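Your task
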Amino acid sequence: MTSPLIPVPRAAGDHLPADETPAFDWGPVETALTRTTDARDGFQRMQELAEPGFAPTVARFLDLHRRHSDRIARLMAEAGRVPDADGSLMGRVNRLVVSARALVDRIDADTLPQIVSGETHVLEAYDAALAGAAPQGVRAELAALRDELADLLATVSPPG
């Protein structure tokens, strides 16, 4: 039996009465949306310039980031938030960097270290969003998206 004067510890995501529900900071989720949208923009440009043998890898990342940015935007909209699905200046920089690289080098498997480095920033954004007190449904969705990206990176990352 618990005393009404002593708060009972609750796990993140537990359903609480409205007056006891901790406020959820959507900022980290918005950051995850921005980073995945920026990555999507970079891969979109990369798809246009990739060597034929590397194009399927680029297409996998592009498809993933398209689906993820759409899903995160829907999660936010379902919660009454207005998602900014346009990305940031970094997305435009990504496109320019890809274009510049294509002028002096090929967009092929040699770009994987840069891709992995860039995707690490997206994973970090997911981790930050998951560290917050997200509602259970949002948390589950974000965790699934993060795991899907991590799995893709594991399949394409060069050994070592």
Notes: Residues 55-78 form the longest helix (24 residues). Residues 1-21, 99-104 have pLDDT under 50 and may be disordered. The radius of gyration is 19 Å. The domain at 27-156 is CATH 1.20.1260.10 (Ferritin).
